[in-house]
Amino acid sequence: MQPKPLRRRWLKLLAGVPALILVTIGLLHVAGRAGTGKWNRYADKLREDGMPLTYAEIAQQQRAVSEGPTVAGRIIELSDALPQPPQGSEEPLSWTWGGRALTPDTFAGITEHSVDSTREYLAARQGLLDDLAALRDRPPGRFPAPTDANSVVFANPWLYASLRAVRLLRVQAVMSLVDGDLARAIDIVRLQRRISEALDEHPMIISRLAQANVDRLMLCNIENILGTATLRGEQLGALEEDIESRMNAATMKWALYGERAGWVAVCDQLVAGKEPFCCVISGPATVTSVFGTLVPDIAPTWLVRKNQMLGTEMWTRLIDVHDDSVAALGAARRIDRESAATGTVHFIAKAWLPNMVGICVNHTNSVAHLRCAYSALGAERFRMAKGRLPESIEELVPEFLSMVPADPLDGQPMRFAVTDQGIVIYSVGEDLLDDRGDIVRPSRQTDAPDVGFRLLRPEHRGLVLLAETPPAEDD
């Protein structure tokens, strides 16, 4: 039997537990109110500066979408019918889906054995191709966007449908060049532009990355067109209009707005108890994880607000410089370093925020590719007027280009190289090293040291058919 003084001590300790719990709850409540107040003041300041913080506020700043039939609406309707590439093929490793191409570069030639099978492949999908062709003169519209209520679970399968449509059109464009149908190949470029326009102002990073891929495939078609034929002035003008339209619309602003709004919505839902804590800290890619099951479903308000402030500040810093590619890349590098070095109290933001440099590099490569292509078309106009290709990019100014475009990767003038068969106008690419226009893609696009556009002299233009043995059936 314990002495009475010891029992009284235990009773006092037990009696103090509820008081300690109440004090702790009170302190957490005070800290939560203080954190919410600080967040509200910061959010109000951003809104005063014209910054949207919700998807509804973003929608108020976007252009009005055309009513009636649109490209986006029809792509959604066709999404189930659009084919997937066969397993094992990589765009742009294989220009054809109907047969295996042994080179990723159509400039090096197309295997003869793949032509007939590809023709059959397209013939079997002629109805779908006709549906897509009808979109050429439709207004683009816009794909559905997330809302503040569904930002965590929102999925956008139509982005992948748009990519499948553009890849199918890429195959059709190359076959049009094989058949000598230059007009159809140029019409397909305009159609690819329309699909890209349907992704303009969509408030998701994945949408901007998908759009960059659509633009890349469009530029591959333009490069192939110029690599196989000599165009008339009006045909060249149509391609210039397509590229200029995409250059003027290429921006990360709406995607960054949307990602910040998604982050703000996630944190607000956590505070309101509408979103399980374990789903959020697992990150946006996977809503469940082993780690996620070991934490409670409710997060302290002060902790969420502290993470909300940090994440929003990081997105805002990138938004502030989004229209300056070099500054945006620098800001992204600093943000990634700071995110990696943040303390454990900011683990929610660290788990949720993506690789900012990767986002900026994908966007900037796309901008560089568009600028190179536009400059190359100026070089083709130079050739049509002078009877030769230019020997430097400066020769194009001011008659064929108003100015030498800047390389968005490093801010320097776009590079120019003369080759045995023509010229290359290029950007230094992600590694910032000048590889003298080495843009041939040995296996996939990311292997290219530089980003650029090739223009051949007329005597080197034309598709080359390679007489190679077809692969074995079980190969």
Q: How would you describe this structure to a colleague?
A:
This protein is mainly alpha-helical and 475 residues long. It folds into 2 domains: 35-59 and 255-354, no CATH class; 71-250 and 360-466, no CATH class. The protein is 54% helix and 4% strand. It is built from 15 helices and 5 strands. It has a 3-stranded antiparallel β-sheet. A two-stranded parallel ribbon has the order 1-5. A hairpin with a 3-residue loop joins β2 and β3 (422-427). α6 (157-178) packs antiparallel against α7 and α7 packs parallel to α9. The longest helix is centred in the first third of the chain and has 45 residues, at 4-48. The chain is elongated and about 105 Å long. The N and C termini lie far apart (84 Å). Residues 87-104, 282-297 and 442-446 have low confidence and may be disordered.
Report the radius of gyration as a whole number of Å.
28 Å
- Domains counted in the coordinates: how many? 2
Report mean pLDDT, rounded to a whole number.
84
Q: What's the helix count?
A: 15
Oligomer: single chain
Biggest sheet record: 3 strands, antiparallel
The strand line-up of the biggest sheet is 2-3-4
What structural class is derived from the secondary structure elements?
Answer: mainly alpha
Helix share, percent: 40-55%
The total strand number stands at 5
Strand content: under 5%
How do the helices and strands follow one another from N- to C-terminus? HHHEHHHHHHHHHHHHEEEE
Shape: elongated
Taking pLDDT < 50 over at least 5 consecutive residues as the criterion, the unreliable ranges are 87-104, 282-297, 442-446
Distance between the termini: 84 Å
